[in-house]
Amino acid sequence: MKKCVILVAILFSGILVAQEVNPELEAVGNKVKATYYYENGKVQQQGFFKDGKLDGVWVSYDERGNKVAVGEYTDGLKTGNWVFFNEKNLCEVAYQNSKITSVKNLQKNALANRN
């Protein structure tokens, strides 16, 4: 569980740290879609802001373009189930008002494929 919580903190700390590469911002309805990039041009994070707060689904990628995390914000707070990926495991973290309510660690090879 500690590894997963540390992974959560590291992956999404990039949102709060100043980015060297300027984000791309696009109006989508009543939200602003933000895309942050690594220096190599690959997408680092992508998600939405509403009224200046994180809102909706956010996705993070590593520098090779592999998805490493998917989660949702509601009015600036982490909510629902977030999934964190690494080479061997998946970690599902449930949030309510930005507080962790449960953590599940899963092995990737134990999951069934869905078509």
Write down the overall geometry: flat
- Please state roughly what percent of the residues sit in beta strands, choosing from under 5%, 5-15%, 15-25%, 25-35%, 35-45% or over 45%: over 45%
Low-confidence stretches: 15-19
- By helix and strand content, what is the structural category? mainly beta
Report, as a whole number of angstroms, the end-to-end distance. Answer: 30 Å
Radius of gyration: 15 Å
Please, how many domains?
Answer: 1
Q: Helix content range of the residues, please?
A: under 10%
**CATH class identity:** Mainly Beta
Element-level helix/strand string = HEEEEEEEEE
Average pLDDT: 84
Give the name of the CATH architecture. Single Sheet
| Oligomer class | single chain
Largest sheet: 9 strands, antiparallel
List the helices and strands and how they pair.
Elements: H1 2-12, E1 24-28, E2 31-37, E3 43-50, E4 53-54, E5 56-61, E6 67-74, E7 77-85, E8 89-96, E9 99-107
Description:
The chain is mainly β and 115 residues long. The chain has a single domain (2-108), classed as Histone H3 K4-specific methyltransferase SET7/9 N-terminal domain, CATH 2.20.110. It has one helix at 2-12; strands spanning 24-28, 31-37, 43-50, 53-54, 56-61, 67-74, 77-85, 89-96, 99-107. Strand 1 (24-28) and strand 2 (31-37) form a beta hairpin. It is flat. The relative contact order is 0.16.
